[in-house]
From TrEMBL:
InterPro entries: HPT_dom_sf. It comes from Methyloceanibacter caenitepidi. This is Uncharacterized protein. GO terms for biological process: phosphorelay signal transduction system. It comes from the Bacteria. SUPFAM superfamilies: Histidine-containing phosphotransfer domain, HPT domain.
Length: 106
């Protein structure tokens, strides 16, 4: 399993944006993560859009594990695959790991 957070990637982002802006981005991501999780767990039509948003921001911030699970789920939803429920569960677990890491980082 990939690490929850690629600290090197996050550190590089901090060097580009500065500590304060990067921390603000992490706080916004924490809120976005909760919103997206609710949509994904709810099983509504917006779950694909939520997975897409998670994948993009998670990857940028260094949450590669969450990005990977988000992309797998998104692909399964858009292709109407049978394994959507299992991939949703994996995505939710990855999101909870990211939440725990965010709580420690923010």
């Amino acid at each position: 399993m990939k690490p929850v957070l690629d600290h090197t990637k996050l550190q590089g982002l901090k060097e580009i944006l500065g500590e304060q802006k990067c921390n603000a981005a992490l706080e916004r991501f924490q809120e976005e993560l909760r919103t997206c999780l609710a949509a994904i767990e709810g099983g509504g039509a917006e779950r694909a859009e939520s997975a897409h948003r998670l994948a993009g921001v998670a990857g940028l911030l260094g949450f590669d594990d969450l990005e990977e699970h988000s992309r797998r789920f998104l692909d399964a939803v858009t292709q109407e695959q049978d394994d959507v429920p299992a991939l949703a569960e994996n995505l939710v677990e990855a999101a909870h790991r990211a939440e725990a890491e965010l709580s420690a980082a923010v």
